[in-house]
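Many introductory courses stop at the sequence. We go one step further.
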Amino acid sequence: MSVAAMGLRALGPAGRGDPRWVIAGHVARSALRWAVIWGAVYGLFVIATIKAFVVAYPSVADRLKIAGSLQSFAILIGQPHHAETVAGFTQWRVLVVIALIGAIWGLLTSTGLLRGEEDAGRWELLLSGQTTKRRAATQALLGLGAAVAAMFGVAAALTLVAGGLPGAHFTIGAALLFAVAMVSSAAVFLAVGALASQLSATRGQAAMITAAVLGVSFVTRMVADSKSGLGWLRWFSPIGWVEEMRPLRDPQPIALVPVVAAVAVCAGLTVLLAGRRDLNASVLRERESGRGGARWLLGPLSLALRLGRGTALGWLAGIAGLAGTQGFVARAAATLLASSPAITATLGRLGAHKASEAYLGISFLTVAVLITIVAAGQIAAIRDEEAAGRLDNLLVRPVRRTSWLAGRVAISLGLVVVVGLAAGFFTWLGAASQHTGVSLATLIEAGINATMPAVFVLGAGVLVFGLRPRLSAVACYGIVAYSFLIDLLGSLIKGNEWIRDSSLFTHIALAPAAKPDWGEAAVVVLLGACAAVVGALAFKRRDVEYA
């Protein structure tokens, strides 16, 4: 049997079709599941937003009042346009949030299926067949494009349903443009991640570069929405392009031009670089360490620290930058919040007594979601160590399985805690520069509170890793997606509180707007710890499973 044939067999179902398209089929199949899931999340988010708005603000007078107060949230989720209408409010509430989610999915998917596959040695098996490096890269991009098309199809179908809801009345054209806008950032960051995979020496480096592009894009969009005179900056941000489309009210289809251009340029450069470089080579060199660096490799724990530091620093820098920006704008946002009696009354019912703390509480919920994604990524990295065969190099030495796993989980837990502390500290730096009056201790407490869902995700991930390792990454990202979806749909869940309670984000207070419930947090952490112990025992007894 040839090496190429073994490669096709290793890919499973993808290898049973036309061999000329096996790479496109494999990439499409690998990305399709989550593309469909997130497409459904997008569509359900639209439906939930419409229903919640119609129920909460039934009259024109109510809608005019709330529309005048939404400017305070512009820095977080964009400038409102005609927010007194169902269409205007829906596009304001949905687009930037979904653009950020799609971008994260895009960068993780493309770097994993391109540079990650190459790092694991599977790309070499495919290239040993009757294909070229450029043709293989083109097929991979087509596979990613098929996943985006599936995401669009699901989101468009649900958006068309949403358009027929009472009070919505979207036209078919507007609903389809809305679906295009929702998947645009995913398409852009799939392409950016594919290009970074050709430039970078490792998957971690590629993900860090793409995440840096996303961070700069998001901060640029925040600055653009901080003042009306800076709106032109949105045209320099992929997230800003999505916001500028305004598909349901005052549509600007011209904002699709930079989206298409960015995807085309990145795809073209990806194919060009793939043909020019050698397999496992890169334009950007991985920093080589001399003997001095090797002195610190004292065991699997220090090795894991060394290998994962690039990704860890990328997440740390990104979340710290976001937190600092949110703190910096807190005072201006609080002033606008306090000017709205309706929002002030709502925040009062939630226990928020200061507008600045209320704004920061909402901001920390965003941070909490990102930290859970960090935790899920750590479990995926642990599984990748085993699937790619790198774990074998450690287990043949006097390294116990439980010691290795405990070390990796400890590093992951440390990263989660450090990111939470950094979020609190940098939020305080930004807020203190504007004299908001929120103390450092209060914001550090809020940062720790935001890590609680991520601790549970780590524990649950270890449990699945011990029992069904191939499902560990899927399970972790699934928990995050499910919790986020239930949190978004909370306004529609009446009489079934247990459904709302199944979301991790329901169990954290909006600190610093409300005092953290450390008793409830302790229960969440204890459940995660118990799951991790069971998973570690199961890992000790099972065989090593490869991809």
